[in-house]
Amino acid sequence: MPTSTNGDSPTHPNKQKKHAQTDNPENHNLTSTKLTESNIKESLKLHQAILDSATYLIIATNVDGVICVFNATAENLLGYAASEVVGQKTPEYFHDPIEIQQRAIALTEELSYPIPAGFEVFVAKARLG
User: Is-contact 78 95, C-beta < 8 A?
Assistant: First the structure.
């Protein structure tokens, strides 16, 4: 019985190897991961475009107070580039320290427990729910 030597036969070892590579779950996972990463990147671009088109300043922080969102309007109104503050600074960076201290005193009186001057001034009421 004749056998194929050019790799065209489905039983030829080279053909089986190529087919096995295509069906490899690792290849599927890699393709799926790349697709997911691409979708996330596109979503982040859209998210940033929406933030930057807002005509009001948008600043968000993580739970430690470090800025994680700083839109184009915030850059224009406050005079800082997002690259200067995101992941590096808290809102205290562009607030008057005397006003922060005054707010801490006012909140301490209002809430009947001590509010330290610092990031807590910005979130004390939000923490109450």
Answer: no
14-25 pLDDT, tens per residue? 555 554 455 666
SS3 call for 60: strand
Residue indicated by tokens 């948008």: 58
Q: Collapse the DSSP code of 21 into the 3-class scheme (helix H, G, I; strand E, B; otherwise coil) and give the result.
A: helix
Q: How many residues does the chain have?
A: 129
Is the pTM higher than 0.85? no
DSSP 8-state code for residue 39: H
Neighbours of 47 (CB within 10 A): 11
How far is 12 from 93, CA to CA, in rounded Å?
A: 68
**Please, what is the end-to-end C-alpha distance for the chain in angstroms?**
81
Local structure of 3: helix, strand or coil: coil
Containing 69, the helix (H) or strand (E) segment is strand 67-70
